Amino acid sequence: MRRIKLLTLLVICSLVFAGGLALNPVHAQDAVRITYVVNGVLGDKSFFDSGQRGVDKIADEYDAEVNTIELGVDPANWETGLADAMAATDDYDILIAGTFQMVDYLAKNADKYPDKVYMFFDASVAYDNPDLCAGGCKNVYSITYKQNEGSFLAGVYAAAMTTSGLDGMNADAVIGAVGGQDIPVINDFVVGYQQGACLVNKDSKFLTQYAGNWNDPAKGKEIALAMYQQGADIVFQVAGGTGVGIFEAAEEQGKYAIGVDSDQATIIAETDPEQAARILTSMQKNVDNSLVRAFELYKDGKLPIGTAEALGLKEGGVSLSINDIYKAATPENIQKLIDAVTEAVGNGDISVGTVFTDEASAAKVATDCSAMPEMTFDVAEYLK
Predict the structure, then answer these.
(1) Is the torsion defined by CA of 131, 132, 136, 139 positive or negative?
(2) Which of 66, 179, 293, 322 has the fewest CB atoms within 10 Å distance of its CB?
């Protein structure tokens, strides 16, 4: 367990809970103390690191005191580790945690500490389930991300780039996706990715496989190598630390990858620029931005505690990484296409399918575009 402390001073305001549990600043006191609980380890160059960047930014800009607790990769330690962190009430005013594996653990303990504020990202506590949320989890603010929207952009990009003439692309309209597990949140990435590809090329074919874990780069590499051998130009990694192996496979085969959660190419470029050059973009879940946004609402007394918010392209909750590697590899017309599709999804002109709806309407992971909905958006003017 590693702990990181940033000690400074901050003038903030006390909490007044009423109705929907918005926070109302009323007087100055000591620095806000934040505990960030990671059900894994930092250094994933992805999801947890993005959260750390967020709390670091809060510490830097608002002089908050931040304590990060890493629970390690063994799930057997997560429930007790989170319970211990929550019970250490003298150490924090706000406790931040995330990922679907932890949501019920936090929900069943939050009511024990009604004067504390909990921010949970990438899943929502079950506010209406009294068996999980005693008292309705009125002191918990949940953040979810419209990963299907961001992944839609990734699919548009992948399908467009397969026809770009970039060295390493072949004539086959085949793209891959590797998930950490076959679970709804990962499939929400995959279905968005596939729908985006179909907007560009209705002949797109999809290879999808699940690694079964989040910390096995060797397994990720093995799967990606097989996909490249089956004709995939680009593989989208949605597998956390397992995805590091996908980048290794892309470099080895002279193919390409799309990262996830953080701007992975920029991070990896610090130590391995040749590998980073194979990561054309990443579908970012902007955990860092969402935590800073939540803290700013908190300090202004406007955080809607006791509810969940879903953040998509419009709110900046998700995005594609636009960095030097992207700009150098991506033709101008495809860059313009991505900009136009981003705007169209954000303003509702394109509706992206999701697995998180009723069974009849839920999007399904596919092998081709035959079952995809018709979309009215003219890509031809960008891909002349």
Answers:
(1) positive
(2) 322
Q: Tell me how far apart the alpha carbons of residues 24 and 15 are, in angstroms, rounded to a whole number.
A: 6
- Contact between 195 and 352 under an 8 Å Cβ cutoff? The reply is yes
Inter-residue contact 350 to 377 (CB < 8 Å): yes
Yes or no: say if 193 and 236 are a contact pair by the CB < 8 Å rule. yes
Give phi and psi for 32, each to the nearest 5: -65, 130
Those residues whose C-beta lies under 8 Å from the C-beta of residue 255, and which sit 6 or more positions away, are 168, 228, 232, 233, 234, 235, 249, 278
Q: In what order do the strands lie in the sheet with 117-121?
A: 3-6, 65-70, 33-38, 94-98, 117-121, 140-145, 308-311
Element holding 175 (H helix, E strand): strand 174-179
pLDDT the model gives residue 244: 94
Q: What tens digit of pLDDT does each residue of 136-183 get?
A: 999 999 999 999 999 999 999 999 999 899 999 998 999 999 999 999
247 vs 235: CA distance, rounded Å: 9
The conformation of residue 373, written as its DSSP 8-state character, comes to P
How far apart CA 235 and CA 252 sit, in angstroms, is 13
Rounded Cα gap, residues 180 and 210, in angstroms = 5
Please report the domains of the chain, with CATH numbers, ordered by start residue.
3-145+287-311 (3.40.50.2300), 148-284+322-346 (3.40.50.2300)
Q: Among 155, 186, 271, 48, which residue's Cα sits nearest to residue 251? A: 271
Q: Is 194 left (phi over 0), alpha (psi -120 to 50) or beta?
A: alpha
* Average pLDDT value for the chain: 91
Distance CA 153, CA 66 (A): 34
